[in-house]
Amino acid sequence: MGGPQSPNTTLEECPHFNAAAEINLIQKCISAGKAVVGVCLGSQLIGEAFGAKVKQSPEKEIGVFPITLTKLGTEDEKINHFGTPLNVGHWHNDIPGLTPESKVLAFSEGCPVQIVSYSNLVYGFQCHMELTTEVVSLLIESEDDLVAASKKHKFVQNPETILAYDYSEMNAKLFEFLDKLTAAYKAQ
Question: What is the pTM of this model?
């Protein structure tokens, strides 16, 4: 899942987050043929597990903005039900690295990599389709000054706008993706 850290965060900077251990666990899961889904920081850690370095996003994104499926995204049977565009949550400043084999399935105006398929069972979501009003309320509390940031950054919304959004459509589409991924995992 997400967090304020990056894959480059050291133990000295954040003693309760061990990026190397997280990456090692992800590599073990991938090697064992498990289904792996990473969200935000998790997506960036998956990229690192495949040897692809995290990058800074062209834009900071906080709020609800549309993603657009790429041609590969419209062909991916696990996410093509998302439709395009689809409004989803965002709370990031970085993007996952890409391998030559990875497929970018969705992008936004502010970020060229929103959903990545690293393999048939390994997906990274830079966007946050799991957000709810309750979670967003907690995220807003942890932000230093979201109102000021919303005036400075094109893709940062003010707290009232973020809290007023109905997250149920994106949640339902995420649950359907997870059901499809679980079925693909069981079928192998």
Answer: 0.94
